[in-house]
Amino acid sequence: MTRPQKVILAFSYFISETGPTNDILYFLLTKPSYALVLAQIEHFEFYPFISSYTNKALSEFDNSLITGDFQKLITRWQDPNNTENDRKAILTEAEKLIPNSKQINQGLENSQNRKNRFKNACNYIQSKIGNLLKVSTPSPIRKLKKTEAIEQFIDYLEQYYGSKPVEISSYYAIDGTVDFQNTKVYLIQFKMPNGFESIGVTGPYTHHFEDLTMSDIKRMYKKTHKKKLQTLYYGWYLSHKELQKNASASKLTETTWEDTLTKLQDLKKSQIPVNTTPLDTYFNLGGEHFFIFKGNLLYNSKELDLPEDLNNIEGVMGWRTAKAKGITDYYKGEDNLIFCYRQSPISSFLQRESLSEAVLNKHDFFLYYWIGYNKLLLTHQHSY
User: Fold this and answer.
1) Cα angle for residues 323, 327, 330 (degrees, 5° grid)
2) How far apart, in Å, are the Cα atoms of 240 and each of 1, 33, 156?
């Protein structure tokens, strides 16, 4: 499918599944496998009024899936004996898990917004009519069985290393959607004759990282490490596919970085990245730009007297660091961070994580992870 075709498909799913009250939670409870549509909404030229809330809502939705809280609500929602009051109660509980859904719903309910979204959708269709009429048939993706997935990964390792693994097993299996096709993705744990142990991926795409060891993985947070590995490999897949079309997608110019940093360090912002160090880790994924850099986060206020050079400020730290060092006079914020700044034509979002996350300290991994996190289409997950 062309991108405009995907946009219109996503738009159609969204307006048909938000229920009689235009509730985004109705959509997530009824069609959780189409959470990818919510990720696409922010790119709609005809949905600007909710774009600033989608990433926050997605993060809340993602966290509630990891804890299993939202999955419990989905199970209750699917009960055929539910009364109208039962459904209202479930929607209320869902709003507590995803509080940013309230702002999205308010935008959807606004009558002028409703008029504008269809008007803008019509204009979009008219401007993209040539691409909408183009049909491209993707290569069919076959859903592998567990034994087939293991055999496929053994063949991959044999071609890569010239030898078969001495130990191999399916570590985790995910039902979901890749390239708009239903499929199954497997995380495969293996050990090579030289002692190297790790977890790779196979299914519609197959890969592993030579510098991702089992000891790295064991240092990841146990409750979320499977989801993070899934996200990491999906980000690699999208990047690899884009590089085949655009060899310069990963090339960052000095001018682009300087312009981006100027926007990020706008003194009007309440939170500003400071003491930044670019990591030469960048990717342009179809017009969405991902920048990776290290630094601190400054909690800005009008009372602060800041130096001109925001990349040379001493004493920016979190309260825990200050307490541990016995410091009372410091700039409040967060220290020892790695940032991902995602910039699209109509929105931007700054994400951060502590450098203490072992695997993601490796810059390429962090880039792949955040690309995967922003674009993840795999929502149904279960292990075997």
Assistant:
1) 110
2) 19, 24, 17
| Dihedral, 248, 250, 255, 260 alpha carbons, nearest 10 | 140
Task: Look up residue 264 and give its two tokens.
Answer: 């990020």
Structure tokens at 17: 């599944």
Q: What are the residues facing 282 on neighbouring strands?
A: 291
Residues 6 or more apart in contact with residue 5 via CB below 8 angstroms: 131, 132, 134
Q: Which of 134-148, 195-209, 228-242, 253-267 has the lowest mean pLDDT?
A: 134-148
Contact 359, 219 (CB under 8 A): yes
Phi-psi bin for 290: left (phi > 0), alpha (psi -120 to 50), beta?
beta
Based on the domain organization, do 201 and 300 belong to the same domain? no
pLDDT of residue 381: 41
Confidence of residue 122 (pLDDT cuts 50, 70, 90): confident
Which of helix, strand or coil describes residue 182? Answer: strand
Calculate the alpha carbon distances from 148 to 151, 199, 241 in Å.
5, 17, 24
Residue with tokens 């290290």: 294
| Domain boundary residue, one of 62, 97, 132 | 132
333: in domain:
yes
Q: Is 173 in a helix, a strand, or coil?
A: strand
The span from the CA of 100 to the CA of 59, in Å, is 10
The residue among 244, 318, 286 whose CA lies nearest residue 40 is 286
Cα 104 to Cα 9, 28, 31, distances in angstroms: 20, 13, 17
Whether residue 245 lies inside any domain: the answer is no
Confidence of residue 9 (pLDDT cuts 50, 70, 90): low
The number of domains in the chain is 3
Name the residue among 349, 350, 254 with its Cα closest to residue 297.
350
Tokens at 224, concatenated? 């979320």
From 99, 127, 151, select the one nearest 3 (Cα to Cα).
Answer: 127
Domain that holds residue 201: 146-218
The values of phi and psi at residue 274, to 5°, are -130, 170
The predicted-structure confidence for 305-341, as pLDDT tens digits, reads as follows 888 899 999 889 888 888 888 988 889 999 888 888 8
